[in-house]
Amino acid sequence: MRALCWNGVNDLRVETVPDPGILAPHDAIVRVQMSSVCGSDLHLIDGFVPTMKKGDILGHEFVGEVVDVGPDVSKLKKGDRVVVCSIVGCGHCFYCEHELWSLCDNSNPSHAVLDKAFGDTTAAIFGYSHAFGGIAGSHAEYVRVPFADHGAFKVPEAIPDDRAVFAADALPTGYMAADMCGIRPGDVIAIWGAGGVGQMAILSAYLLGAERVIAIDRLPERLRVARERGRAEVLNYEEVDVREALRDMTGGRGPDACIDAVGMEAHGRGVEYAYDRAKQAMRLETDRPFVLREAIMACRKGGTVSIVGVYGGLIDKFPIGAAMNKGLVFRMGQQHGQRYIPRLLEHLERGEIDPSFLVTHPMSLEEGPRGYQLFKKKQDGCMRVVFTPAASA
Ligand code: NAD
Ligand code: ZN
Fold first, then answer.
1. The CATH number of the domain where 95 resides is what?
2. Are residues 274 and 321 part of one domain?
3. Does 36 contact ligand 1 (Cβ within 6 A)?
4. Helix/strand/coil for 299
5. Structural domain that includes position 340
6. Ligand 1 binding pocket mutation candidate from 223, 259, 262 (most atoms within 8 A of CB)
7. Of the four, 48, 81, 189, 243, which is 20 to 30 A from 56 by CA?
8. Helix orientation angle between 220-228 and 196-207, rounded to the nearest 10 degrees
9. Which segments within 230-303 are labelled E, that is strand?
10. Are residues 368 and 317 in the same domain?
C-alpha cells in the first residue's frame, strides 16, 4: 500500500510499504477514507519528539471502513464506517476504567523512554513516535487499530466524512480543553491558538455554557474563522499586548479560564521569545512555553489554566509564584477521546457542531509532503490538509 512516511527532520516521502494485518485478537484493519494532519505532527516533523524512525507512517486523525477484524472484536464488523480515537486505550486497565484513556497502562509496550522522561508510561498514539507505542499512523491506505472495540466508533450515516474525521482528535481535544475549565454561566474563556484544536475549543466552550470566548493568534485568516464560525472575540498578539487587552475586556479581572491550544512550538515576541528559541535550539530547554506563561499571568485569581497544547519535556522560567499565589487550578493532558467521542457524535448528528470548515486543503495522499509544507508554514490559509488515501488507491 502507499503511505506517507517520516524519513528525518523535515523529510516526508510517500512510499510503498507492506499492508498491515491482524496481529492481536483485538485488532481491526481499517481502510482509510480521510486522514487529517494535526499540529502534533509538526512536533515530529520539526524533530522535537525523539524516537521517530525512518519509514514511520504519520497520521492519527482518521475515518474509514472496517475491512477485517480479529476474533476478539465484538462490536465491529466488516463494512462499518468508523472514526478512530487518536489515542489507543485497552479498555480494561485502572486508567481506562477511570476514563483516563490517554493514560492507558497497556497500549504502549515501549516503557524505556517515557518511564525515564515522565516517571511513567502513557498510552500509545497512532503515528506518534516509538516512545508513544510505535504504532503505524493513518496517512496510508490501511491502518491496524489495536483494541478496536474501545477506540473505533461507528459513525451515523448522517455525518459525512469531513465532519466525522475530526471526532478522532481535534474535536475531542478542544472539547476536553473546555470541559477541564469547569465552565459556569457568565464565564469568559480565553483560548491561545486558533488552529484546528483552538477552533474546536471555541465551539465547545460555547456548547458547555461560556458567556464569552476570546481567541488569540496572529494569523488573520484563522482569527476571521474564529470570529465568523466560532462567534469568538479575537486578539492578534502581534498587534496588541495580550495581557492588557484581556484585562480591558474583562473589567480588569482577567479571564475565568485560559486554554493553551498552542504548546511547545509557540511563537512570541521580544526578549522572552528570543530566549526560548535560543535555549530550545541548544537543547537546554525542550519546549517554548511562551503561551503557558502568558496564560498564567493573564488568568484571573482562582481561575483555571487548561493545557492541551503538547509539551514534551522541560521548560524555563515557569511563573510558579504567580500560579501559586493566584490560586490557579491546572488541568491538562492528551485527550481522553473514548470518553467524549460518543457524545460528540451525537452533537455532530444533530448538527450542533460542524467542524468541516477546518478542511481547507483536501489532497491525495501522493501530495502529502506538499500538504505538510503548506500546513507547517500556514500558507494559503491552510487550517487542515485532509488526505483521501482510499480514493487514490
Ligand atoms: P496548529 O499548528 O494548526 O495551530 C497552532 C496555532 O497556534 C497557530 O495558529 C499559531 O499561529 C498559534 N500560535 C503560535 N504562537 C502563539 C501565541 N504566542 N499566541 C497565540 N497563538 C499562537 O495546531 P493544532 O492542530 O491546532 O494543535 C494545537 C496544539 O494542540 C499542538 O501543540 C498540538 O500538538 C496539540 N494537540 C494536543 C492534543 C491532545 O490530545 N492534548 C491533540 C491534538 C493536538
Ligand atoms: Zn488501558
1. 3.90.180.10
2. yes
3. no
4. coil
5. 2-169+335-392
6. 262
7. 81
8. 20
9. 233-236, 257-260
10. no
Q: What's the CA gap between 302 and 284, in Å, rounded?
A: 32
Let me know: does 298 contact 242? Beta carbons within 8 Å: yes
Q: Are residues 199 and 328 in the same domain?
A: yes
On whether both 301 and 376 belong to a single domain, the answer is no
Among the three residues 281, 303, 332, which one is the final residue of a domain in this structure?
332
CB of residue 232 inside a 6 A radius of ligand 1: no
Indicate if 312 and 354 belong to the same structural domain.
no
The answer to whether the CB of 291 is under 6 A from ligand 1 is yes
The ligand minimizing its distance to the Cα of 240 is: 1
Question: How does pLDDT run along the chain (393 residues), one tens digit per residue?
Answer: 999 999 999 999 999 999 999 999 999 999 999 999 999 999 999 998 889 999 999 999 999 999 999 999 999 999 999 999 999 999 999 999 999 999 999 999 999 999 999 999 999 999 999 999 999 999 999 999 999 999 999 999 999 999 999 999 999 999 999 999 999 999 999 999 999 999 999 999 999 999 999 999 999 999 999 999 999 999 999 999 999 999 999 999 999 999 999 999 999 989 999 999 999 888 888 899 999 999 999 999 999 999 999 999 999 999 999 999 999 999 999 999 999 999 999 999 999 999 999 999 999 999 999 999 999 999 999 999 999 998 755
Q: Is 266 in the pocket of ligand 1 (CB under 6 A)?
A: yes
Q: How many domains does the chain have?
A: 2
CB 326 within 8 A of CB 350: no
Do residues 284 and 157 both lie within one domain?
no
> Cell digits for 76?
465491529
For residue 35, give the 3-state DSSP assignment: strand
Are 88 and 9 in a shared domain? yes
How far is the centre of ligand 1, averaged over its atoms, from the C-alpha of 261 (Å)?
5
